[in-house]
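Lecture notes, unit on protein representations.

Consider one protein chain, 391 amino acids long.
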Amino acid sequence: QGKGLFATRNIRKGETVFVERPVVSSQFLWNALYSYRACDHCLRALETAEENAQRLLGKSSLVLPHPEQCSTRKDLHQQCPRCQVTYCSAECRQAALEQYHQVLCLGPSRDDPTHPLNKLQEAWRNMHYPPETSSIMLMARMVATVKQAKDKEWWIKAFSQFCNKTANEEEEIVHKLLGDKFKARAWQCLEGQLELLRLLFTEALYDEYLSRWFTPEGFRSLFALVGTNGQGIGTSSLSQWVHACDALDLPMLQREELDAFIDQLYKDIEKESGEFLNCEGSGLYVLQSCCNHSCIPNAETSFPENNFLLHLTALEDIEAGEEICISYLDCCQRERSRHSRNKILRENYLFTCSCPKCLAQADDADVTSDEEEEGEGETDDAELEDEMTDV
């Protein structure tokens, strides 16, 4: 829980509270291996909506109606001439080059497994299986940004705005991010994983100005900062196409046919590919990180522009001076019992919720929701990781 964000004016339901660009962001490393394709800077999906649907459905013959509603412009895509990393536009390629890519560009070593950055990324993949909940490359971009910056202190101050944890809390967060898939292994093995990451991180990116980030304590703190404050980013050209189709003014019969097509498409995709449909990454957002959790949130985050621009939208009227709260839980989790909700929040975010809903249910029995009772005592850490939203 951060310091909180409060409305400075009256905000109406459905109104955009703010649109925020991340201080730094990065794709998840498993994206490429799963054939997700997104701009390496702004995370805009590089596939057309039709290509996106074909991949998720495993059906290359699929044709989407109203293709003009897809905003993907492949003619604008550009690659780094040295390492072939792809961007959605010349603007994104230039922005990346100016902020961090000079340090992170692999050049002709892109496919060299012995290159320090490749070794770091491979180690992360071996330690952190999908669904990813953070990314070592978000930390790498933080370092690269400072290394390239003329005003290094400005960037250090920008990163210092994010919530920091105590040593014990940092240890818990690191364990959560690295330990869940290795539950049967000893704690020393987890410490060994973190130390391996630190050594590879140092080999790839060490900078004297940031020397404290490369010490065991500093690396743990940096790791925990990203784990605590990282906001998941999901982009999808298919989703954007659906929203554009929803806005079309069509005759009733055509509207019904299009809605039925889209409904069936999503059912087929979920059956084929599951629930994780978006290109995914994480970013650090100053304003969003100030928003505290509530089990009855009055605002929600989304990425309607199919890139890393975060929109915070009011779910109800918010009066001036009222705290703006989002939920760290998904809709299904928020319907569970107070005990169940707080179990997830304690294990994933290290706090107990005291929102009005939880306070009103304070006298309820400390039992899990009906949907969890059948598996009570069987829920493992892997399931809880699937429930994580930000960390």
